[in-house]
Design a protein that fits this description.
Largest sheet: 2 strands, antiparallel
Distance between the termini: 24 Å
Oligomer: single chain
Number of strands: 2
Radius of gyration: 14 Å
Length: 72
């Protein structure tokens, strides 16, 4: 599964510079993780939260401050 995310308009120059350094065209969620999405497919809130988590886990520049609290 490949997910494309369009970033919102930003006003911070530092944040813009950081995002340019860590930006990727797309993130592919590992196929081994896709059954997790299938299991919660009928639960929109859980599905959206899980997809966001798997996107972050699969990103080459992981945001651990975002990932770790969501794993609890």
């Amino acid at each position: 599964m490949t997910t494309d995310h369009t970033p919102p308009e930003l006003e911070s120059d530092a944040l813009k510079a950081n995002l340019l350094e860590t930006a990727v065209d797309s993130v592919t969620i590992d196929e081994a993780l896709l059954p997790l999405l299938e299991i919660v497919n009928n639960y929109r809130g859980i599905s959206t939260t899980l997809e966001t988590l798997l996107y972050e886990v699969s990103h080459p520049f992981r945001n651990w401050k975002m990932i770790l609290p969501r794993l609890r």
